[in-house]
Specification:
about 130 residues; mainly alpha; two-stranded antiparallel sheet; 3 helices
Length: about 130
Amino acid sequence: MDPVYLFNIASKQQSWLSARQAIVAENIVNANTPGFEARDVAPFDQVLDATSTEMASSSDLHLSMAAFAQRGAIKDKATDTWETTLSGNSVSLESEMIKAGDIRTAFTLNANVVKAFHGMWLASVKG
């Protein structure tokens, strides 16, 4: 049986979400630090595009993912800020709480998709 890549993609997204959650937590902790600039990670689609995943092909005419080189990994970036205080701090607690909610929603969605796919996979194996 060929490996199932959905689990690999879900694992990569969970790693990305963990990295994003750590950055958001760091932003919240430093909300009152003078001169601190809020950060965020690159969007997941960019991270996924930067990693290579081998696809199974049934013909030599199919596009091979081996042709694409691995171009990067999770990198943090300066975030678009809502406001900057007089001390130079660019952390907006409202914005960070929205990001934290988005992360929680994405974690839940990821877990539910993996759970459903795992159930379908087991049902197909059991016959």
